[in-house]
Amino acid sequence: xxxxxxxxxxxxxxxxxxxxxxxxHVDAHTDTGDRALGEKIYHGTPFRRCVExxxxxxxxVVQIGIRGSCYDPDPxxxxxxxxxxxxxxxxxxxxxxxxxxxxxxxxxxxxxxxxSFDIDGLDPAYAPxxxxxxxxxxxxxxxxxxxxxxxxxxxxxCDLVEVAPMYDVSGNTALxxxxxLFEMLCVLPGVKTM
Length: 194
What we know:
single chain, metal ion binding, Ureohydrolase_dom_sf, alpha/beta, Arginase, Chain A
């Protein structure tokens, strides 16, 4: 629940304890805008604020599922200029993400990292209950591959955001969100699963 603004203060606290962390960020949007309606803090700016404050190890930031309408001819330039790896949704269509997560695991190494999962990273056919749905997103199976692909990493925190149940009368978005959070709990260090 909550919008993606909540990740910003969480990462402030995490970085206070662990220093700059790596990030696996699943989302339709990069959330690296500078302002909206004159405000510097809103759900489209948290990762720019995190970069500015040195909360992220930018060489270990991976954004997966990025897509949607843009107002700029090079909408991901800021992210790439920071050293982020941007994996567009179209690079994920029709295939397993297990190989991608093998690369991500190497990139993260054994240093502290955080998982931030915006439910709109998934296609709205599976998760319509969100404020900014974008077509042609990831599947629930790919979401599981991403989360399960983080098992064994030095995960120091995680979140799942942007679930808006009132936009989904079926309840499927909330069910999917709850299951993905459960999966995140299962990959935390020291958690034993069968």
